[in-house]
Amino acid sequence: MRIGIIGFGNMGSxxxxxxxxxxxxxxxxxxxxxxxxxxxxxIGWAKDLEFLVANSDLLLLAxxxxxxxxxxxxxxxxxxxxxxxxxxxxxxxxKIEELLGREKVIRCMPNLAVAVGKGAIAxxxxxxxxxxxxxxxxxxFSKCGSLHKxxxxxxxxxxxxxxxxxxxxxxxxxxxxLAGVREGFSxxxxxxxVLDTIEGTVLMLRTFGGHPEEWISKxxxxxxxxxxxxxxxxxxSFSGILMECIRETTNRCKQLG
Length: 257
Ligand SMILES: NC(=O)C1=CN([C@@H]2O[C@H](COP(=O)(O)OP(=O)(O)OC[C@H]3O[C@@H](n4cnc5c(N)ncnc54)[C@H](O)[C@@H]3O)[C@@H](O)[C@H]2O)C=CC1
Ligand SMILES: O=C(O)[C@@H]1CCC=N1
Description:
This protein is α/β, with parallel strands linked by helices. 54% of the residues lie in helices and 15% in strands.
């Protein structure tokens, strides 16, 4: 399988790391300075878009929303039945087909954790994508994280929860680290403690299952320490704030469409 990455920025290069494990990967970017990083990663470099398309079986569109339209118009009539996978936030299958023409398209929403093979990746196929196309997609992209086939109507919410998710998790981690510093740890000590606690908590939930609120009751001893912290989170509407965060992120994604 030969995969051509259009746009070798944050996401294009992150995907390159995972996709090269099971496919021959070539990249193209209008910013030639990205070439060095691609070659260092063992990824080929195409001198132009036409060369990339001619030497790929599947194309990954990894440019910003503002740049996607002109790329798709440049690809029009050149796909030769190949699959286009778009990770552009808010860009619907319908809009892609308006720009590209009636071609095989998979709308995909990953997150940056594809860089370490632990991405959360949603996808939806248009009606022209055949079973073998989807299998080829899953074979390569499953090397970059967990795949979630979703209805296109949930893609904007997935973008908010998972696509933007690493930024919200990093904000949570940063706040806990600062809290640790406030109590007397160095920042590095606090980060080590926080990351161990989050990693252990995730593993506990994935290993034993159950509902997060059940786990909170296992940790919060009667009249103990934890419940004082939970009280602050409830009083300051921690859950409500996160719901609004995801709602506004989802709405912005809809606006991009
Ligand atoms: N950053 C993230 O965590 C996520 C981003 N996305 C989506 O991925 C897409 C890319 O995002 P990033 O990688 O963060 O952006 P980026 O700005 O880091 O990378 C985009 C790359 O596209 C290149 N480019 C621009 N016009 C081009 C053209 N005509 N032909 C070839 N290359 C061109 C730019 O030079 C740049 O290197 C966006 O549509 C974004 O919505 C999706 C999920 C997560
Ligand atoms: O912030 C953005 O628009 C992109 C899409 C999802 C994550 N980053």
